[in-house]
Design goal:
Elements lengths: L7 E5 L6 H11 L5 E6 L17 H6 L2 E2 L12 H17 L3 E6 L2 H9 L1 E2 L6 H14 L1 H11 L1 H5 L6 H14 L3 H10 L4 E2 L4 E6 L4 H17 L2 H9 L16 H8 L5 H25 L4 E3 L6 H8 L4
Parallel strand pairs: 1-4, 1-7, 2-3, 2-4, 7-8
Antiparallel strand pairs: 5-6
């Protein structure tokens, strides 16, 4: 943990639960002085992914300083380790200005790393990843998951057969180093100096008791995204040199379905249905993650206000 540094305020929750608007209301209240928001979102890091990620508007960014958005091109990869390094630097910089950092988001792997730290793993040449992804396009990720089961059953056991990003990472490490990902992690855990340390967080989790309310908000937001020009945004991304449907940025919920629609694979009705369903499944996974984390303070998001949030957090950062 981070020595004697005070805890970092953190607001997490499933997609469409109202995290960003609640954080903006808190910042406007100035209860904690000048707040700067550190976004904990694996899609907002990509430039050009704006409407589909509900990225803060220019007006919101001018009103409250935002961090960890628009960091990389959609053709690039952004790792959990990069997030942890960038988040810690942003938090240190905010505090150096005498302001209050508030971490806000719903990417649970990022939250887990921020709270618990992260094993340092070897980097691998891009050509290995390209070869693995090429094989996956021809044979499917379940085939590669079966291959991973043979060489690293411990890692394979905790991954779904279609978990493309993590299957690919585990196979990259195996092909490049000749050691399994599980062995690298075990080695890192036995040597504390080979880990990126986590932070002391004071966490509030938005936990909706009414799943129908959350589902309605998800549908409303997806329809609004389409009205705001989401398909035009994705059409522009499709013209981005070197970008394909297989890049991690385009596997984000909503973007994957929009790409399929614009490629003629599904019609608009299927886009709407599949996009909403995929977002609901994402929310379900996020809630499952939240329930697995010990020591979180829960807040019902329906009707939640910034003063309720500070009551749950406590009156001081």
């Amino acid at each position: 943990m981070a020595g004697s540094a005070p805890p970092v305020l953190c607001l997490i929750g499933p997609t469409a639960s109202g995290k960003s608007s609640l954080a903006m209301d808190l910042a406007r209240s100035r209860h904690f002085g000048t707040i700067e928001i550190v976004n904990m979102d694996s899609a907002m890091v990509y430039r050009g992914l704006d409407i589909g990620t509900a990225k803060p508007s220019r007006q919101e960014q001018s009103e409250v300083r935002q961090h960890l958005i628009d960091l990389v091109e959609p053709t690039e990869r952004y790792s959990v380790a990069q997030f942890l390094t960038d988040a810690r630097k942003a938090i240190d910089d905010i505090r150096a200005r005498g302001h209050t950092p508030v971490v806000v988001g719903g990417t649970m792997l990022y939250f887990k790393a921020l709270r618990e730290g992260l094993d340092l793993l070897p980097s691998c040449p891009d050509h290995i990843r390209v070869e693995i992804e090429g094989q996956a396009r021809q044979e499917g990720w379940p085939v590669l998951h079966a291959q991973l089961t043979k060489v690293d059953p411990q890692t394979a056991a905790r991954l779904a057969p279609n978990d493309a990003q993590r299957i690919c990472r585990a196979l990259e490490v195996w092909h490049h180093t000749g050691q399994t990902l599980s062995s690298w992690i075990a080695q890192s855990q036995s040597q504390p100096g080979d880990r990126l340390a986590g932070l002391c967080l004071r966490v509030v989790a938005l936990m909706p008791s009414d799943r129908a309310w959350l589902h309605a908000r998800i549908e409303q937001r997806f329809r609004l995204m389409l009205e705001q020009g989401f398909l035009q945004e994705v059409a522009g991304l499709m013209r981005h040199e070197g970008l394909s449907a297989h890049h991690p940025s385009m596997r984000c919920v909503g973007y994957r379905q929009a790409w399929a629609h614009l490629s003629g694979e599904i019609d608009r009705e299927a886009l709407l249905r599949k996009g909403i369903e995929a977002t609901r499944q994402l929310a379900k996974r996020q809630i499952t993650w939240l329930r697995s984390f010990p020591g979180l303070s829960a807040l019902e998001p329906r009707g939640a206000s910034w003063d309720q949030l500070i009551t749950v957090w406590g009156s001081s950062p």
